[in-house]
Amino acid sequence: MGKIFKFGQDVDTDQIIASQYIIYPTIDEMKVHTFESLDADFASQVQPGDYVVASENFGCGSSREQAPSVLKALGVKAVVAKSFARIFYRNAINIGLPVIVCKDLYDNVVAGDDMELSMQEGVVRVNGKTYECTKLPEYMQGILDQGGLIASLNRE
Amino acid sequence: MGSTIIEKIVRNNIGNVVHPGEIVTVNVDRVMIHDIFIPFVASKFEEMGFQKLWDADKVVLIYDHLVPASQVDDTRHFRIGNEFVEKYGMKNIHRSDGICHQLMTEAGYVKPGDIVFGTDSHTTTYGCVGAFSSGIGYTEMASILGTGTLWIRVPETIKVNITGKLPENVMAKDIILKLIGDLGADGATYKALEFTGDTVENMTVASRMSMANMAIEAGAKCALFTPDDKTAEYCGITLTEKERDLAGDADAQYCQVIAYKAEDFVPVMACPSNVDNVKPVSELVGKEIDQVFIGSCTNGRLEDLMAAAEVLKGKHVAPFVKLIVTPASRRIYREAVANGTMAALAEAGAIITHPSCGLCCGRTGGILTDGETVIATNNRNFLGRMGTSKVNIYLASPKSAAACAVAGKIIVP
Fold this sequence. Notes:
The complex is a heterodimer.
Chain A: E1 2-6, H1 13-16, H2 27-30, H3 42-45, E2 51-54, H4 66-73, E3 78-81, H5 86-95, E4 99-101, E5 114-118, E6 123-126, E7 129-132, H6 138-145, H7 149-155
Parallel strand pairs in A: 1-2, 2-3, 3-4
Antiparallel strand pairs in A: 1-5, 5-6, 6-7
Helix pairs in contact in A: 4-5, 5-6
Chain B: H1 5-14, E1 23-27, E2 30-34, H2 38-47, E3 59-62, H3 75-88, E4 92-94, H4 100-106, E5 115-118, E6 132-135, H5 138-147, E7 149-153, E8 157-163, H6 172-183, E9 192-196, H7 198-201, H8 205-213, E10 222-225, H9 229-235, H10 241-244, E11 256-261, E12 268-270, E13 278-280, E14 291-295, H11 296-299, H12 302-312, E15 322-326, H13 330-338, H14 341-347, E16 351-352, E17 373-376, E18 392-395, H15 398-407
Parallel strand pairs in B: 2-3, 2-5, 3-4, 5-6, 8-9, 8-11, 9-10, 14-15, 14-17, 15-16, 17-18
Antiparallel strand pairs in B: 1-7, 12-13
């Protein structure tokens, strides 16, 4: 179980981690600034195992891989959104952060709700209700299962 | 069944007919890495255990976001980049020649039909010469540097057909903003945009570049224009049959077809703080402004600077407005000096900066503060992009931007 942190539509990568921080040498130095312009308390309140839930087009904008990386570094277990921007989506899979499309979840949950995710079944459970998610293409699920692109390449 | 441009490019690359939705591994013709991400690319490359680049000639490193350095730590990126270049025998490096996307086409790194990936999201720009180009993250870039390949999902294509003659005060920028407004910020996600019609056939490569550059703002994977004689001249090549064939077939399958009449376009702006929040300039008239930025990989080319100079000729920027002009490359800078454009801009009161990303990425050259308003010709107006998160950024064409600089408020050019 993890808590839901809720964000809206078209959350861009500048909002996830702003430009002035992405030149910090390490992800650990950046992560305290995650979502700073939207929710200044996010980085201090999120706990390992919590979830980010968003509406459409999550992660639009720049190609910065720091965006999924800071979320993973803070212990976010998965991002569940109505849809994702493509570069963010690829980057998240490549670094081993689960990103899941679920059309019905966003409108039926509030911030702070407890949520459980089963990647195998492709469902999330919140407040006693189960929501179906769109499964990842097999190729991408394979990369994710191995922990990301580096682990996947090492195995080849 | 016929093919779209992207289907032909991928087919030519892998040697098999492909269809939208298929996942295939392509052979990469060129990659571009920019200064912001080189430290991460370098460390991931070594973490992956690669000993050498798959093909050093195909790798281009460009310093542009951090040039000239505005903070002491910026130089760390140049040091790591220089070490990487030295260690792996790279030759294609630009340390202060201009913005990456301008240089990739201008310096001849991209040809029609190529498959190119870059660490910057606006890598879609090279579709202006009929190349499939797209942005990726630094881990994937490191993996290409070692393997020369990348998996992609063959995208569906949205065809955008534009016919007729554009009004005098409308530029290619107005067309792409209007399209993004109509599609929405995710309207083309995972898809290719294919531009056709006599309006785009009559456009310069520079104008096509402005449009391809912003395809990502509708979520697109790439944007494609059919290579023609102008493309050949721009690239300094003679087109082969295969390159001339990079046009959508009459019986190709499109997931959506959008048609515009050029005469219907009006000057528009993307209002704070989403690129798809597009309104006619006529609805925004009178809004007071503090600054104007003409530059970037979207609109820092010679034709853009000349269009601005034409508006500004014999006039002066409003006393309380700072007009910042940043050419997209050193070559453009020199050409604009040679043909008198720079003199006209300077006489009108412009602050002219060195070619680089400059204000577009909010790191240098005109950062704004709470409550200020800027009219800018670049590609993003996200919260906090050019200073604090309370700056109002309106995206516009160079003609609109220059007209506003003189008026000190938003006006129709």
